[in-house]
Amino acid sequence: MTAAIKQPGWIRGALGAILGAAFGFALVVALRKASGLPAYQTEQTGYPQVVVPLITGPLGFLLGFGCFDYWLRWAAGMPTIPEDHSQHGATSWKDYFRFNTDHKVIGIQYICTTFFFFFVGGLLAMLIRAELARPGTQIVDAATFNSLFSTHAAIMIFLFVIPVFAGIANYVLPLMIGAPDMAFPRLNALSFWMLPLAGLMFVGSFLAPGGAFDAGWTGYAPLSTGAPLGQSFFNLGVQFAGASSIATALNFLVTIITMRAPGMTFWRMPLLVWANLSTSLLVVAATPFIAGVQFMVLFDRALHTNFFQFAGGGDVVSYQHIFWFYSHPAVYIMMLPGFGIISEVISTHARKPVFGYRLMALALIGIVVLSYSVWAHHMFVAGMFSWLRVPMMITTLLIAVPTGIKIFSWIGTLYFGKIHTYSTAMLFALAFIVTFTIGGISGVMLGMVPIDIHVSDTYFIVAHIHFVLFGGSVFTIFSGIYHWFPKITGRMYDEKLGRIHFWGTLFGTWVTFIPMHWIGMDGMPRRVADYATQFGDWNLLISCGAFILGAVQLVFLYNMIVSWRFGPKAVGNPWRANSIEWQVSSPPPIFNFPEIPRVVGGPYEYGVPGARHAIMPGESVEAPSAEPTVVGSA
Amino acid sequence: MYGRLPIAKMLAATVALAAAISAVMLSINWDGQEASTAAPKIDDLLNVMIVLSSLVFSLVVVALFYALWKFKVKPGDESDGEPIHGNTRLEIAWTVIPTIIVLFGAGYSWSVLNSIEKLGKNPLTVDVFSQQYAWSFGYPGKGNVYVQGEMHVPLNRQIQFKMHAQDVIHSFWVPEWRIKKDNVPGITTTAIVTPDKLGTYQLICTELCGFGHASMRAKVVVETPADFQKWVGSLEEKVPAPLAESINQDTEANPTPINAGGA
Prior knowledge:
The structure holds 2 protein chains of 2 kinds. Chain A is mainly alpha-helical. Chain A folds into 2 domains: 2-75, no CATH class; 93-566, Cytochrome c oxidase-like, subunit I domain (Cytochrome C Oxidase, Chain A, Up-down Bundle), CATH 1.20.210.10. Chain A has 19 helices and 2 strands. Chain A has helices at 2-6, 10-34, 48-65, 69-75, 103-132, 142-176, 185-204, 230-258, 271-302, 316-333, 336-350, 357-371, 389-398, 400-414, 424-447, 449-455, 459-489, 495-521, 536-566; strands at residues 598-599, 614-615. In chain A, strands 1-2 form a two-stranded antiparallel sheet. The model of chain B is unreliable at 258-263 (pLDDT under 50). By secondary structure, chain B is α/β, with parallel strands linked by helices. Chain B folds into 2 domains: 7-71 and 90-116; 124-252, Immunoglobulin-like. In chain B, a hairpin with a 2-residue loop joins β1 (124-131) and β2. The interface between A and B is large, with 95 and 89 residues.
C-alpha cells in the first residue's frame, strides 16, 4: 500500500484529487471564517466552496498521477530519475491508463477519450431532437433543454472535434516527419490528462444545483455571469481543455519545426503536417483569449468584478469580441487538420500527386492570417460599432478564396488519377468535398451583412455550423480514422460495415441538416425548446434524420471495436501510400524507427518514375532517381 | 499525353445543373412574406446569391462526378495516375475568379446595407424595452405612452426603434421585416424599418435569454396612419420610471462622430 502511494498512478492520483479538493475547500472555509462570514456561500453565482476545489482537485490529481514528477524533481534540484523509458510505449491495455510519454499511446488515448465524448455529446443531441420532434414540451422542460444544447455543443467542440484532431496528429505526425516522438513527450502526456478533467467538469455540471450550464456554448454575458453554479463548471472546464490545446499546439510547432527528418524541407512536408502547423499557429495565439474571457466571467460571478456587468460599469459587447476572437479561429482549428487528412487520403487513393501542392500549403497560411480578422461577423446584429461590419464582411468573404482553392485542388487531384473507392476513408473524403461546399456556400451568405441580419440566430445558423462541423470536420475525422486504423491497430476494419456507416451518415447528415436552412429562413429561431406549429413537420423529419445519424454511429463503434480485436492483420502499407508512416510496420515499433529515415523527395510523387519520398533505414540507396523531382511545380 | 477533357460539355452540364437548381430554388419563397421596404432588397440579394451558389455547387458536383466516372480505376489496375503536379494558369484562375465574385458580393451587400439603413426625414421613434421574458414599447413622440406585449406602427412610415435591454441580451426580430437587432444592457441599439404591408406579425426574441426564451414573443400590428393615431391616442399608461431611466443611462452604440453608415 505504501508503495502504491509513492508510485505515480491511479491510487496516488485519487489521493491527490481528494487532498487537493479538501485543501481548496478548507482554504475557502477558513478564509471565510476568518473574515467573519458564514462558512458556505450559496448564492447561485458564488459557491466558492465548490469552485475553488474544482481548481485544486484536478491539479491534485495531475500531481498525484505523476504528470509533474520529473519536472518537480528537476526544478527542486533533486537527482532526477534516469530516463529508462519505463513510461514509454504499451505492452498491455493497462499501459493506456497511465501517464505514458509515447506519442502513439497518447494518440490512442486521445482518440478513444474523444470518441467516448462524441457518443456522450451525440446522446445529448438525440435528447434535443426527441424534444424538438413535436411542437410543445414533452420530454424536458425549457431550462433543462437549454442545458442539453449547451453541454452538447461544449462537449462536441472542446472534447471531440478539437482534441480528436490532436489525437490523430499525435499518432501520425511524428511518424510522418520521421521523428522518434514529439518534441516534449512529458508535456504531451500532461496535455492529454487535462482533457478528461475538462470532460468530467462539463458532464459533472449536471449534478450542480441549478443544473448544467445553460447559456449556450457561447456563454454570452450577462446571461452567463448571472447563471447558476453549472456555468462555473463550464468556465473551469474550458481552462483545462484550453491549456491542453495550447500545450499540444506548442508541442506540434516545436516538433514540426525542429524534428523533421534530414532532407524534409518545408516544401517536402506532407499537407497534414502543413495543416497541423497552421492549426497550431491559430491555437497558441487564439486559445488564450477564450481562457481569459472565461476567467473574466468566473471573476464576475464569484468575485464581483465588473468586466461584463453593465450595472457596475462593465461592457457587455466586449465579451463577444474577446470570445469570437478565439472562437472564429476555432472554427479553422476544427477544420484545417481535416483539410490535411483529406489531402493525404485523396492523393493516396487517386494515386496522384496533390494538385497545386504549394498553393495548397499557402492557402492554409492564408486562412490562418485571414481568420484573425473576421471574428466580428458573428456580431453583425450585436450592437457593436456599425462601421466595423463592412471590413469584417469583406475579410469574411475573402476567406472563401483559399477555401475554394482547396476544394478545387482536391478535385484537380482526382483528374487523370486511378481512383480507388474501396476504402471507406476515400468515400468520406469524397463526400466531404460536396457537403463542405454546401457549408461553405451558406457561410458566404452569412458573411453578407444584409442576409445575416435576417438569418442570424435562426436555424439557418444551426444548419450552417452542422454542415461545416459535421459534414465538414466529422467527415474528415471519420476519413482519417478509417485511413490510419490499420496503422494504429495493426488490423484491418470491415469495409462492408464501413460502407453502411458511410451511406447512413451521409443520408442522415443531409436529412437532418438541409431542412434546418429552410425553417431558419422562414422564421424559426435557434435555441428554443418550443416552436410554432407551422415548423412541426420539418422538425419531425429532422429528428428522424438525426436518429438515423445517431443509430448508424453504433455500426461504426461496433466495427472499430470488433476489428481492433479480431480484424485481419494489417500489412505495413495497405494503401500503398508514400508517406513515411506507411513505410514502417503496423503498428509501428516502439521507438518508430531504428534509425531516422532520410527524405529525398516530395510526399506525393505517385506515378513519377523512380521518385522516392524517403529512404528508410536499412534500405539500399541506389533506388532514388537520377533526375531531381520538383515538388509542386506548377 | 494526358488526353483531353470535354471542357465544353462539362461547362454545359454545369450551367444546365445550375439552371435547374436555381429554377427550383428561386421558385420557393424561402424567407416568407415580405412586409418592409428592406425585405425585397434582402431577398433580391439572397436570390442573386442562390444563383451564384448554384453555379459554384454545380461546378464542384459536375467536376467531381465526371472525375469519379472517368478516372475510376479498372479492376486489377495497380498502376499510378499521371504525375501532374499542378497547372499554374488554372490555379491563378481559381484564385482570381472567386476573389472577383466575392468582392462583387461584398460591394452589392454593402450597397444593400446602406440603402436599408438610411435614416430618412421625420422617422417615428419607438422605444423597445426587453426583459426576461417580455417586450414593451414606448412612444416618445406621442406623449411617452407605454404598452406591453403589443406594438402598433403606421404603414409606410420609417420607424426608428431604440432598444433597451433591462437584464440580459435579447434580440428583436420580425421575420417579415427581415430586420434583427440585439438589445444590449447598457447601450442603446437602433434598427430602422419601413413597414409596407398591413397585417399582424410576431416579434421574436432570437438571443438566448433564459428558460423563457422560446416564448418571449410580442404582437406587432401594422395599420393605417389613421388607425395608428387612434390606437396610440387610446393609450394612457406612461413609460414607467425605471424604464425611462434606462433610456437616459444607456450609451449610444454608435457615439458621434463615428455613427456614419447607420446603426
